């Protein structure tokens, strides 16, 4: 594309606009994220916590990269953004089995960026000739920047695909994919390629991090800790993305032991599937682990370890987050925002079949203290507890796993 340097006045206007874009309002970022994570073509990315977090990080990276370049050299061509954020997402897309069509998200982000930038441009000048030149130069710049960045990322994705189709990792990943899809592969052949028995009982796990500065070596240490908690020497550990591992162990892990190991691995999170036997169990447990991970992400839960059997009901209740929020609000009323010790006391009381003595023991508190908290909780509920104990218990479980606003 031929490039004509804009006039000094328009260069100054571009610089002013770029400085605004360097400190984007929260609503800009929210709109970019919504555009790049919605739509049928991007469902798989939006449903994956690591890919979704990477996409949001890439949105910020692209916006700041273009804006910073135009502060330094207003109106000059901006090179492709081949920094770590977009390259990392490219690697992860390939490792999830996606192709370059996933880069459609860049086009969705571009349309939002063009509209937001046009609003900025119109606020900088009322001179129609200045505005025409400003928009002509800057919109061509945005289009060229996105085209060049998509081209650079496509090259990286092809290289990553070539790397993954060679060697043992590719063979193990392909075998796991066949098993998860229910494709015809004999048990003996799959076990030989994986080095992992498929007849025993399995517990699958998703081990991941959404912390941008996390030490990725901790993911493999967490996988090893999972195996140790299940009494095994090593797990089946598949690299799903740079920040995600798919893991299987035989039997069920000791979650207390696993939780203690996680305390030494900051930033790492684990979602456990059900514990079930055979090849069907291998597949079922993995899908349950994915459901658990997606629920934690959907609810912005701070929990770093969750098992499917703990969250199955909550996962079903919160499939539609807005309806789940309305259910919790209607059911709990003022209790929803009560002090944590009051909320937890009622939750444990219901879990112990409304037995105050057992609940007090479980909470390590005096029975009279518990009764005072229960009385306070009863006053905050919109309806008496006895009239809708099941609904209150379900709402409290949602509240337990949901991140506080």
Automatic annotation (TrEMBL):
Residues 343-397 form the PucR C-terminal helix-turn-helix domain. It comes from Streptomyces albidocamelliae. This is PucR family transcriptional regulator. It comes from the Bacteria. Residues 188-294 form the CdaR GGDEF-like domain. Gene3D superfamilies: PucR C-terminal helix-turn-helix domain. Belongs to the CdaR family. It holds the Pfam family HTH_30.
């Amino acid at each position: 594309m031929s490039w004509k340097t804009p006039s000094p006045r328009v260069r100054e206007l571009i610089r002013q606009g770029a400085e605004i874009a360097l400190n984007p309002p929260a609503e800009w970022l929210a709109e970019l994220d919504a555009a790049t994570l919605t739509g049928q073509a991007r469902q798989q990315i939006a449903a994956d916590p690591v890919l979704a977090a990477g996409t949001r990080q890439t949105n910020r990276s692209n916006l700041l990269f273009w804006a910073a370049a135009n502060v330094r050299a207003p109106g000059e061509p901006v090179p492709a953004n081949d920094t770590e954020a977009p390259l990392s997402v490219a690697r992860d897309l390939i490792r999830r089995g996606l192709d370059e069509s996933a880069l459609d998200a860049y086009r969705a982000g571009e349309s939002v960026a063009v509209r937001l930038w046009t609003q900025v441009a119109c606020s900088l000048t009322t001179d129609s000739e200045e505005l025409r030149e400003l928009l002509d130069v800057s919109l061509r710049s945005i289009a060229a920047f996105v085209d060049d960045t998509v081209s650079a990322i496509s090259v990286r994705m092809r290289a990553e695909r070539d790397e993954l189709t060679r060697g043992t990792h590719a063979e193990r990943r392909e075998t796991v994919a066949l098993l998860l899809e229910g494709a015809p592969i004999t048990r003996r052949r799959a076990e030989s390629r994986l080095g992992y028995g498929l007849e025993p009982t399995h517990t699958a796990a998703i081990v991941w991090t959404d912390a941008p500065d996390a030490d990725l070596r901790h993911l493999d240490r967490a996988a090893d800790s999972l195996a140790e908690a299940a009494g095994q020497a090593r797990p089946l550990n598949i690299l799903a993305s740079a920040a995600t591992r798919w893991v299987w162990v035989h039997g069920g892990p000791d979650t207390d032991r696993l939780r203690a190991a996680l305390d030494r691995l900051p930033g790492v999170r684990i979602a456990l599937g059900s514990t079930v036997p055979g090849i069907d169990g291998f597949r079922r447990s993995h899908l349950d682990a994915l459901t658990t991970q997606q629920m934690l992400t959907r609810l912005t839960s701070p929990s770093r370890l969750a098992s499917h059997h703990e969250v199955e009901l909550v996962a079903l209740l919160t499939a539609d987050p807005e309806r789940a929020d309305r259910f919790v609000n209607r059911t709990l009323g003022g209790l929803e925002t009560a002090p944590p010790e009051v909320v937890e006391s009622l939750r444990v009381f219901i879990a112990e079949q409304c037995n105050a003595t057992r609940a007090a023991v479980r909470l390590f508190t005096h029975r009279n203290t518990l009764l005072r908290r229960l009385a306070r909780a009863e006053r905050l509920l919109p309806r008496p507890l006895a009239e809708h104990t099941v609904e209150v218990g379900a709402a409290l479980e949602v509240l337990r796993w949901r991140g506080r606003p």
